[in-house]
Write a structure and sequence with these properties.
With 740 residues, the protein is α+β, with helices and mostly antiparallel strands. The structure holds adenosine-5'-diphosphate (ADP) and magnesium ion (MG). The site of adenosine-5'-diphosphate (ADP) has 13 residues, from α3.
């Protein structure tokens, strides 16, 4: 980024709309605003004050009265800013004023009517006309996003799911400053496309308005355009400049009527006003210049406009006024606001070669795709030469450098090649089929091979086509200077625009000079005055005194006004505070009486405040770190096994025995030597003496054992003496085993 440290102040212009029908019918009082277009002055009359009270005068960088055209405002006050954005500066235009004074009219207007197109559609024309007329060694990429801030939540107006989408987060990076994470950004190739983007966003905004009365005048809308331009520098390398343009239609600045507002509605009102009052505080802090701390972080709006107010941007503020007497207070507040904003100093600089330029990514990707494509072409050429050498005349490969005819030729050639190849394979297949000397099996194999070759060929062709389509789609997004993307860029129009631009420049210069002359007049007047007589001197001094006295009165009235306003806003804040305190007491009462203290403590211990999102959050019950280690840890006896396993079972597995279930119970339930006493007593004594020698093989015993071993599936291996021997060591402590 270039390091020029020049600073410039925020440009402030004021626009007054005509009286509307309702206001006209209210009486012949007329408007309370007069404007001196030549001097850039607004003169405000207080309808309630006696005629002797001096009127209030404010001077701005430009004023536009009820007869002003959209085009006048654009050419004089906005055009230079958009030119700067095209040169790589950040730019912001925001409309500020009471609801119904013409903010949306100024920013958007009736965009289908050429006379009534507002700043945003005019900026579209300007940007794309500039691109179409620039030199052909420049490449441009234009992106647009559209968002709104409603009740301190940032919402993406281009998200198809706008109504239910979650609020977006703000993030900060050293490169781009504050930005909105996951915000949709549309690459636009023409005026039509970018108008479509605006339309989609406006519709989403309108949908919100039906859900919530007065939605649009309570939400701030930001249309963001990023223009990236790549141009070869003196060092031969391509340099990228990125201009970011914020077009902001703010919520109505009027005070919320607080009376009778409670609970949810109260909080809503407090939130709605938060952004605007934070904006006021930021402007005051910056205009004051003395207070070191600027409260940008107090609201989403001020964070997003951080660069535009006192940072790296050129900024124009359009303050809109209504001429009706009943809105005197609001009009005065708007003028004061605007007057303060004039003193804000910005430090704009060209954004050169930022790391996150999307244009660079596009260029790299396009180069990669181009390399892939030419590699493919080269490969197919090689194949063709191998297969069909005599048909190939070895012509030079054309670089895919935009030569459309050559591209078309190449495409045809490739298609021809595939067709010929397919025909050849078909012929070969036929020949194989008809070859009587080949075995059926061999035929099948050869035919399969040919099929496979044809499949490969088709796949290859499809892949090349896909690659070409992707390459073309990406390349078409980059706008090249000098290419006719406009249908009305004739010389006459260009001249007309230049003339208009010159006239606007002249008018601006004239006004600036007039303003300077006025301020100098007052100083030089007294120097030039040479008094011929005492009487004359007295007269002159009295006149001056009167003038100064009038000025003093004006300033006193101003101080009184400001004090009144402060008292009023303090009262409003106190009222809000009282109501919030009342609500807090109510919640406390519920907590103290209905939530057990230990539960409350538990909950309170888990809560932490996230300043980034301005919300309280619950900490997870199990700390994330220990959770993972707990999951990983396994008992020592289970390492390498599905479940904990005993030494016995391990040995049994090593021996090849089925170890299932024995892990849990390694006792031998081998022998219940006494047979079940189901037989009659006298017979059993007999049987006992007879059977005892062959006890091991006796079916009765087996039956008994099986009963107790029903879960053990390999009795044989257990009773085998060798395994008993080796296993006995393992369960020597077990009495049953020891007894064996
Ligand atoms: P806001 O956005 O400040 O609430 P709007 O832009 O919606 O106000 O304007 C309110 C009405 O006043 C609209 O009908 C609009 O057409 C009209 N209006 C505003 N400014 C002008 C103007 N300069 N010339 C003619 N009509 C205007
Ligand atoms: Mg509006």
């Amino acid at each position: 980024m270039s390091k020029s440290k020049s600073s410039e102040s925020v440009k402030v212009v004021v626009r007054c709309r005509p009286l509307n029908r309702k206001e006209e019918s209210n009486g012949p009082a007329g408007g309370i605003i007069q404007m001196d277009l030549r001097l850039g002055q607004v003169i405000l009359r207080n309808p309630r004050a006696p005629p002797s009270e001096p009127q209030k005068t404010f001077t701005f960088d430009g004023v536009y009265d009820a007869n002003s055209k959209q085009r006048d405002l654009y050419d004089e006050s906005v055009r230079p800013l958009i030119d700067s954005v095209l040169d790589g500066f950040n730019g912001t235009i925001f409309a500020y004023g009471q609801t119904g004074t013409g903010k949306t009219y100024t920013m958007q207007g009736a965009w289908r009517d050429p006379e009534k197109r507002g700043v945003i559609p005019n900026a579209f024309d300007h940007i794309f006309t500039h691109i179409s007329r620039s030199q052909s060694d420049r490449q441009y990429l234009v992106r647009a996003s559209y968002l709104e801030i409603y009740r301190e939540e940032v919402r993406d107006l281009l998200d198809p799911n706008h109504g239910n989408a979650r609020a977006l987060d703000l993030r900060e990076s050293p490169e781009t400053g504050v930005y909105v994470r996951d915000l949709t950004s549309c690459v636009c190739k023409s005026i039509k496309e970018i108008e479509e983007v605006m339309n989609v966003g406006n519709q989403a905004r309108a949908v919100g308005a039906t859900d919530m009365n007065e939605h649009s005048s309570r939400s701030h809308a930001l249309f963001l355009i990023t223009v990236e331009c790549s141009q070869p520098g003196p060092d031969g390398r391509k340099h990228i400049r990125v201009g970011r343009l914020n077009l902001v239609d703010l919520a109505g600045s009027e005070r919320q009527a607080k009376t009778g507002v409670q609970g949810e509605r109260l909080k809503e009102a407090a939130k709605i006003n938060l952004s605007l009052s934070a904006l006021g505080n930021v402007i005051s802090a910056l205009a004051d210049g003395r207070s070191g701390h600027v409260p940008y972080r107090d609201s989403k709006l001020t964070r997003l406009l951080q660069d535009s107010l006192g940072g790296n941007a050129k900024t124009v503020m359009v303050a809109t006024l209504g001429p009706a007497p009943q809105h005197y207070d609001e009009t005065l507040t708007t003028l004061r606001y605007a007057n303060r904003a004039k003193n804000i100093q910005n430090q704009p600089r060209v954004n050169e070669d930022p790391k996150d330029a999307l244009l660079r990514e596009f260029q790299t990707e396009i180069a990669r795709l181009r390399a892939q494509l030419s590699h493919r072409k080269w490969r197919s050429k090689q194949k063709k030469e191998q297969v069909d050498g005599e048909d190939w005349d070895g012509e030079e490969e054309t670089e895919g450098d935009g030569d459309e005819e050559a591209e078309e030729e190449e495409k045809k050639e490739a298609e021809n090649y595939v067709k010929l190849e397919e025909q050849r394979l078909e012929r070969e297949k036929k020949a194989i089929r008809e070859d009587r000397f080949l075995l059926a099996e061999e035929k099948q194999r050869l035919l399969g091979e040919k099929e496979r070759m044809m499949g490969d060929l088709r796949k290859e062709q499809e892949a090349t086509e896909q690659l070409t389509a992707k390459y073309k789609a990406m390349e078409s997004k980059l706008l090249v200077g000098g290419k006719n993307i406009m249908d009305h860029t004739n010389e006459q129009q260009k001249m007309l625009e230049m003339k208009r631009h010159e006239i606007a420049e002249q008018a601006r210069g004239e006004r600036e000079m007039q303003q300077q002359m006025m301020s100098q007049d007052e100083e030089t007047l007294e120097l030039r005055d040479t008094f011929t007589s005492l009487q004359q001197e007295v007269e002159a001094k009295t006149k001056k005194l009167k003038k100064l006295y009038a000025k003093l009165q004006c300033i006193k009235a101003e101080i009184q006004d400001v004090n009144d306003e402060h008292v009023r806003s303090r009262q409003e804040l106190e009222q809000t505070q009282n109501e919030l305190t009342r609500e807090l007491k109510f919640k406390y009462l519920i907590i103290e009486n209905f939530i057990p203290p230990e539960e409350k403590n538990k909950i309170m211990n888990r809560l932490t405040f996230d300043p980034e999102e301005d919300q309280w959050k619950f900490q997870p019950l199990v700390p994330a770190k220990s959770k993972s280690s707990q999951m990983k840890k396994r008992p020592a006896s289970a390492v390498g096994y599905k479940r904990p396993i005993s030494q016995y079972a391990r040995v049994a597995i090593a021996m090849g025995a089925h170890s299932r279930y024995r892990a849990e119970n390694i006792m031998f339930l081998e022998l219940d030597v006494t047979p079940p006493n189901t037989a009659s007593l006298d017979r059993s004594t007999e049987a006992d003496s007879n059977r005892s020698p062959s006890l091991d093989n006796s079916p009765t015993k087996d039956k008994g054992v099986r009963k107790s071993r029903s879960w053990c599936q390999t009795p044989k291996s257990i009773s085998s003496s060798s395994s008993n021997l080796s296993l006995s060591a393992c369960h020597a402590a077990t009495p049953t085993a020891a007894a064996q």
